Prior knowledge:
With 158 residues, this protein is α/β, with parallel strands linked by helices. The chain has helices spanning 28-40, 59-71, 87-96, 125-140, 144-157; strands at residues 5-11, 14-23, 46-57, 81-83, 103-105, 116-117. It has a single domain, classed as STAS domain (Transcription Regulator spoIIAA, 2-Layer Sandwich).
Amino acid sequence: MREGVIKFAERDGVYVIKLEGDVRLTLCLSFDEFIDKMFSAPDFCSVVFDLTDAEAIDSTTLGLMAKIAIVGERYLREPPLVVTNAVSITRCLLTMGFKDIFCLVDKTSIDSGDFQALVAKDGSEKHIQDKVIEAHKVLMSLNVENKNTFQELINSLS
């Protein structure tokens, strides 16, 4: 699998976030910082996730995506759009309960111009652990299955 990359582009308050390759925990600090900056942008109004080049997405990244839908709800004109064409990723999103907070669309990738890649940030083990816990608590809030799946992880990290 290719190493994971998270890219973004923005135009008129619409953010396109493109996940490529095997997106893992190593990008969680950068992604979370990006989310905070996006929320504070004065014209922020919409989010589109392009997952068409993603090979795998870990649960921490999924939790941060869910954070955008849940916390960003007060800024957004409509639920975030997720574009995906991989059966395994779509199945994972459905299992996690994403159909309740996102609009899922099966399409090819979207061309939104120039993307900038997020750079993985170094952080203390405690800081990364806190982000992992936060992301999984967001996932746990979506449904009982997620709560049962991730409770042991949260207990072991807390």
